[in-house]
Amino acid sequence: MPPHFKQKRLRFAAYLTTLIFFMSVALITSLMIGSFALSPNEILEILFHPDKNPVAWSIVVNYRVPRMLLASITGFVLGVSGGVIQTLTRNPLADPYITGMSSGAALGAAVAFVIPFLPIYAIPFFAFMGGVSTLLLCMLLAKKANAGPIGFILAGIAVGTFSSALLMIILALVSEKAHGILNWIYGSFSTSTWTEIKVALPVVVPATLYLLAKARDLNLLLLGEEHASQLGVRAKTLWRLTLVASSLAVATCVSFSGIIGFIGLMAPHMVRLLVSSDNRFVLPLAGLTGALLMLLSDDLVRSPMNPIAEIPVGAVTSMMGVPFFVFLLLRRGSRFGM
Amino acid sequence: MVCSIVVSGVTVRFESSVVLDGVIFSVNRGEVLGVLGPNGSGKTTLLRSIARAINPTSGEILVFGRPAWDYTEEEYSKVVSAMLPNWPGGFSMKTYEIVLMGCRNRSRNFWWEEEEELEVAKEALQLLGALDLFERDFDKLSSGEQRKVLIAKSLAQRTNIILLDEPVAYLDIKHKLEVMNVLRTLAELGKTVVVSLHELELASGYCDKLLVLNRGKIVAAGEPRSVISEDLLREVYGVEAEVKWDGDHNYPLIIPKTKKIPKEEIVCLR
Fold first, then answer.
1. Average pLDDT of B261-268?
2. Cα B232 from Cα B227, distance rounded (Å)
3. Where is this chain's protein located in or outside the cell (chain A) (predicted)?
4. Is the Cβ of A198 closer than 8 Å to some Cβ of chain B?
5. Domain count of chain A?
């Protein structure tokens, strides 16, 4: 075992330990805070003795736990998909938000939302169609423009803005359902319930497991289709399947949480910066980092310092993400290495 | 006997220009074939066609008697490896991570590299005298060092056919010889090597057969001594030179007739 391997594993272990620590803090906090503050002891008591305080039990189990889970799942999916999309487009500045994929997915979900009598299980499918088509459109435009990573970002902005505009129009036309759609524009977990988790998990779990299993081959795909094929990877098939898997996972989450930007950009780069740019480290750790960032952001919007109205969680992630994006842009421009 | 590679009538067109024009040749097992030709003569396109990076416009390439495009990616990566220098940079990878990518074709483990693969990577770098680069950042290496790492990556694929596009470019004389010596021994072990070169003496000294391309057509092929000639230098490269063969080695002595550029021709660059 060469020393660098050990060093990588050491950094991996250190990073993971830190993540788990902060993650537990964020998880417990998310159960505690809200309009009805609870101490950790009270939470334990509620969970183990539901009969003593049925109102508090209902708040924790029916609202806070699903909200906590949905935020974690969404963060995990955005982190993993961010790493995958950066690999597939070979662009370090890409993520589900910047490529317009999230906006497209939200648009698809909004369309599903206004079609009457559509079951909730159909929403992820519409969101997926919206997300995939915007991403492909963005890639097509970037290829035609032939302006490198920056061209890609510009194409993403164009496509994303257009989808958002369509979203606004739908919003204006169906104002009686406006509140639900408004959530998609800014991103929020305030309406999370167990139903959404039940719909999301069967899509998200297999999709992310597939992406994680393909991490080694995704490393080769980073070299481009030509080199990957020569090294024995079915590059075209892998490219398509991983794109579909990550779009499905993102679209499902977006259709419930709304457009949440920059998690998919920040999480993979934090791992590359601190551990390694090997996707076998980047993807799982970026998932956990994304979950942590999402939980922290969601905790922040629910904090008692913010009593009047809940800030959309997407606003908080953008507040963190935009400076990070500028940092990446200035530091390396279009390079993957950190 | 089945030839390792049979290229029959391969033509490659990019839009209106013909880059390869009806190229026909074959390579036997255990042979080192040197592909020569001036810049833009189609050497790289030929190697890329055999490596399946380009699908020829017409013609057929047989690899061990089977059309190249009939193989799956997995199968082909176990038969043909290619060192093509258009390697994308900017990924902050370690040298050994790149060489280990060559081992992917035979890897049984879908997630981690096995201990055995690490040994393969080490031996490949060791052979090329580049073991000290093992843990260096690939992007920070010199062009010559990067070349050696990419060759090591191809060797790590452990294929019977090895294609190398200008493997010795950027290398100093010691490392040039080292690379050619490795290729020679691999050929003696039964591998087939196709290598494009600009160094005529080196190609002549190390290759069993040479093939000269000019404007996409084969203009000469055969044993080094029959190929490298004053006529060839004049007609293909446009160079007036004297070619001398002596001793029992295949290294020609190429003495260019120096053509002086009169000072009056340099007007603006003064």
1. 90
2. 7
3. Cell membrane
4. no
5. 1
Whether residues A216 and B88 touch (CB distance < 8 A) is answered with no
> Span A59-78, mean pLDDT?
93
- The single-letter code of the amino acid at A38 is L
Contact status of B112 with chain A (Cβ, < 8 Å): yes
Annotated domain spans of chain B: 5-87+159-265
pLDDT digits (tens, 9 = 90+) for B76-120: 999 999 999 888 866 678 899 899 999 999 888 888 888 889 999
Q: How many Cβ atoms from other residues are within 10 Å of residue B204's Cβ?
A: 24
Q: Is the pLDDT of residue A7 over 70?
A: yes
| Shortest CA gap A327–chain B (Å) | 17
Is residue A337 in a domain? no
Q: Is A182 on the interface with B (CB under 8 A)?
A: no
Structural fold of domain B5-87+159-265? Rossmann fold (3.40.50)
Nearest CA in chain B to A280: B111
Nearest to B88 among A4, A224, A233 (CB): A224
Q: What is the ipTM of this complex?
A: 0.88
- Mind telling me how many Å the CA of B270 is from chain A's nearest CA? 37
Q: Nearest to residue A270, comparing CAs of A282, A255, A284?
A: A282
Q: Is B131 on the interface with A (CB under 8 A)?
A: no
Are B111 and A229 in contact (CB < 8 Å)? no
Of the partner residues A3, A220, A280, the one whose CB lies closest to the CB of residue B104: A220
User: Chain A: nearest CA to B68, how far in angstroms?
Assistant: 12
β-partners of residue B82 are B163
Owning domain of residue A32? 3-332
A54 assigned to some structural domain: yes
Q: What is the pLDDT of residues A295-330, one digit of tens each?
A: 999 988 887 665 556 778 888 898 888 888 888 878
The tokens describing B135, both together, are 């843990």
Q: Does B150 touch chain A (CB under 8 A)?
A: no
Put simply, whether A219 touches B (Cβ < 8 Å) is: yes
Round to whole Å and give the CA distance between A284 and A306. Answer: 33
User: Sheet harboring B5-14: ordered strands across?
Assistant: B17-27, B5-14, B58-63, B66-67
Q: Which residue of A has its CA nearest to B140?
A: A337
Note whether B163 and B82 are within 8 A (CB): yes
Domain of A158, CATH number, reads 1.10.3470.10
Q: And the tokens for A149?
A: 């990573």
* CA pair distance A134, A259, nearest whole angstrom: 14
CA distances from A18 to A25, A83, A105, A129, A272 (A): 11, 20, 33, 37, 16
Partners of residue A217 in chain B, C-beta under 8 Å: 104, 110
Quick check: B102 and A231 CB within 8 A? yes
Q: What is the pLDDT of residues B49-85, one digit of tens each?
A: 999 999 999 999 999 999 999 999 999 999 999 999 8
Q: Is residue A338 part of a domain?
A: no
